[in-house]
Specification:
alpha/beta, 30% helix, three-stranded mixed β-sheet, four-stranded parallel β-sheet, 171 residues, globular
């Protein structure tokens, strides 16, 4: 189990503006929380007055309805900017193959760790210095389709040649 901790740096710019490293532990934890909050996180989320529970699941349901409405064949899907893979794993429910691409090596590495069966531990900020320890394993979603996903580091504005054709692309 990998433990992710907050590790943001203050920039040396005038006014002490914060900069975020897209590869940071804090950003990774935020995206893990956004993509993989499962229903048992309701108590923590009620403390901060928000609900990201089922965020990628809800997006998938909207996509699923659109795909039905337009009779899209569900063979290959491309998720550009997949971050930690939440939507890509959801898309794999109904697509035979899903490719997730993100510029962040750290996020793609996390997708691979989840896909290989690892449990990831991370801390989410509730308020100020108040943190909640969380952990996630893909089995928590009961999907059983991770093998249909492939993840790679890449730029959505410069997709590698030979990637092929897709029935659905999201960004």
């Amino acid at each position: 189990t990998e433990h992710l901790i907050e590790n943001e740096k203050q920039s040396g710019e005038a006014g002490g503006a914060r900069t975020y490293d897209y590869e940071s532990n804090a950003d990774l934890a935020r995206y893990m929380g956004l993509h993989f909050n499962v229903p048992n996180d309701d108590a923590r989320l009620s403390l901060v007055g928000t609900s990201t529970v089922g965020y990628t699941q809800r997006i998938y349901l909207v996509i699923d309805e659109l795909l039905k409405e337009h009779a899209v064949e569900r063979v290959r899907a491309l998720d550009l900017g997949c971050a930690t893979g939440g939507l890509a794993f959801e898309l794999a429910i109904s697509f035979q193959s899903v490719i997730g691409i993100d510029l962040s090596k750290r996020f793609i590495s996390t997708c691979a760790e989840l896909q290989s069966g690892q449990t990831l531990a991370y801390e989410l900020v509730d308020e100020g210095q108040i943190m909640t320890s969380c952990q996630f394993h893909l089995d928590d979603l009961h999907l059983g389709v991770a093998h249909r996903c492939q993840f790679e580091v890449g730029d959505a504005c410069d997709i590698r040649s030979g990637i092929g054709r897709f029935n659905f692309v999201c960004m």
